[in-house]
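Most newcomers find our protein records easier to grasp once they have seen one. Sequence and backbone structure share a record, each on its own labelled line. To make this concrete, we reproduce a full record directly below:
***
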Amino acid sequence: MFPSLYKYTFRFKVAYKEIRDFILKMSNYSLFFFSFIGFMFVIYDIGYDHADFVSKNIIYVYTSLVYILFCSLFANLVLTISSKRSFFSIILDMILLSYLLFSILSNSFIPESFNHDSDVVQLLNEKIFIYITFTILFIIEFSLKTLGMLKRNVNPALLFIFSFAFIIVIGSFLLMLPNSTTDGISLIDAIFTSTSAVCVTGLIVVDTATTFTMLGKTIIMGLIQVGGLGIMTFTSFLGIMFQSNSSSSFSNQMMLKDIIIEEKLGEIFNAISKIILITFLIEFVGALIIFASIAHLGCMDLKNKIYFSIFHSISAFCNAGFSTFTDGLYESTVRYNYNLHLIIAFLVICGGLGFPILFNYYRYFKHFLKNKIRQTLTGDRYRHLPLVINVNTRIVLFTTIILLAFGTIFIFITEYNNTLSELSLKGKVVSAFFASVTPRTAGFNTINMGLLLNSTSLIIIFLMWIGASPGSTGGGIKTTTFAISIFNAINVSRGKNRIELFNREIPELSIRRAYSIMFMSILIIGLSTFLISVFDSKIDIFKVVFECFSAFSTVGLSLGITPELSTQSKTVIIFLMYIGRVGTITLLIAMVNRVKILSYRYPIENIYIN
């Protein structure tokens, strides 16, 4: 009797597991497929003008999709709630379920009188919430699929560069929607604008203020945000948070380790969470301060002031340089608003320092405050933590300060009687400082770029080439690359065979990478300059050089030739911005097969150099 009972029990468990896995698999497919369909209808709904009967049919489609997604999400939640799933993801699923259920009930079972009298019901039935629901569901499901790709044997560099290409293509399609522009836009201009936004460059071939509608500008703002942090950061964060197993696989961690520059595998998800949190926190605070600085302006209503603040806070922190004004921050309404300029400059510097540096100082201040509180409450001695501020942070900080000071002083002197002549002393200092900050891959301008002296333009080219810091939203060869190269040159002249900074030795691999990055940058910029000079031979070569350095370093500053470029030259700039954003070394790693560790050494022979 008992063996027979055990046999039937075992068969029941096996059958239950098979049915459960099948339902879970179908619900996952259903969530992805129907959320994608809903997202496509959202794009169609907001991107195109259509007749009333079409709008009514779209509402029916939304309603049907809500029913399907509710059933799929409910089945998924019930079948995975007992697994090792994060509590936060369960709560979020319950919130989504509650909203979907309320939408169903409010349209089907709640009396008509209640439906009209309740502000809550009316608010939740607004289309904007339908748009947000389908968008969030699709992003979550897309993130889960992306996280699944990380478990496969995929080249991390290849996945990284293709993720940017994917977003550029999607952005180009969205910018070509009829409701995104006031009078249409060509394919090449849409691709150029999308690439410039995703690669956080800021170069424009059409006027952002007049060409794009509110929808188009919002799409650009979204592309800047995703491009600044990287789609892999967003999708990995959401994917890990919503996956049925709360712990990330080893392959996931190895893949993300290099993307977010985190040495400890166990801290990958915490690092990604901090990146998202710090980004939104800084951008939120920045938007509030920007709003306070423009609150007195009478040329904008409250809605436009709020939008201006959010747009420019995101654009500044992500080092994008896009503006909703035709002349950027050189617009007459904000040209002399020096408080606004300083806020933008601060956001640019924060974004350009890089998340590793921000995390390092966060750790330092956290350690300092905990010690002070402990000393105050218990009288315990101060507990020292060895090398809280690491060598990388010190190099980045010192190099940044030196470059900012050098750029400010140089621009102040050279442009004192030129573009800065009409300004007060305070205006001269702030404008010179701002002009020194923005070449660090931001692209905003508060002075007339077309009137700059050649000497000033050369120093801006130099600052653009160096760019921001590793792990930041900016481009360029990076401050650490420049600093290591300078120190190595000094050591070679002194006959020293290694670099030692702050009682630490810099590994040979870092030195080789630094010189490789510098060489590849000059090679790519030189080739791009040559091609554009062939395609547009009438344009001044100095302006072409300036444009190419700006594009490669994802800066966005221009001497005014960008809209005049031919289609071929625009294509060159598009590839230049893309290569500058993903990185030359990353591109090479993705394209070239890695050499395994060699088990032999040849005899050494000196090569005559110099």
In short: The two ends are 92 Å apart (CA to CA). Residues 108-117 have pLDDT under 50 and may be disordered. The beta strands are 499-501, 504-506.
